[in-house]
Amino acid sequence: EGAEIHQPNPAVAGQTVTATLWLRGSSGTEQASLTVDFRDQEMWTNPLQRTAETVALTTDWAEYSITATAPDAAVFHTRLTIAAESGTIDVDNVSMRVK
Fold first, then answer.
1. Mind listing the pLDDT tens digit for each residue in 44-59?
2. What whole-number distance in Å separates Cα of residue 67 and Cα of residue 90?
3. 63-92: pLDDT as tens digits
4. Shortest CA distance to 18 belongs to which of 53, 44, 47?
5. Contacts for 38-42 with beta carbons within 8 Å, 24 or more apart?
6. What sign has the CA pseudo-torsion 83, 94, 19, 10?
């Protein structure tokens, strides 16, 4: 509960980033927060731009995705964050594609 996973990746202004992953909850009442944010070299500060969604999980594996477009500002990296809003979640087969 409250754990996060971060995976930084480069991005160029105007690129579309789509993260796809499989999730399930341990009891079926969990929620997961999916966030894609774009950051400059000062990664510890506020993101340049952020796209976020919260999804309700069941005990069955299901595929989810989130899409964001990189801002015109200088982007040092794109970060995908998967966070359990409550309980325990399982994560599998994570991919991030840039177009």
1. 788 999 999 999 999 9
2. 21
3. 999 999 999 987 788 888 899 988 899 999
4. 53
5. 38/11, 38/68, 38/70, 38/71, 38/73, 38/75, 38/77, 38/78, 38/79, 39/8, 39/75, 39/76, 39/77, 39/78, 39/79, 40/73, 40/74, 40/75, 40/76, 41/76
6. positive
Name residue, tokens 């794109």.
78
Whole-model pTM? Answer: 0.86
Q: What 3-state class would DSSP assign to 14? A: coil
CA distance 47 to 66: 17
Query: In angstroms, rounded to a whole number, what is the distance separating the alpha carbons of residues 55 and 76?
Result: 28
Report how far residue 17's alpha carbon sits from residue 83's, in angstroms, rounded to the nearest whole number: 19
Q: Is 61 helix (H, G, I), strand (E, B) or coil?
A: coil
HSE-CB at 10 with a 13 A cutoff on CA atoms is 1
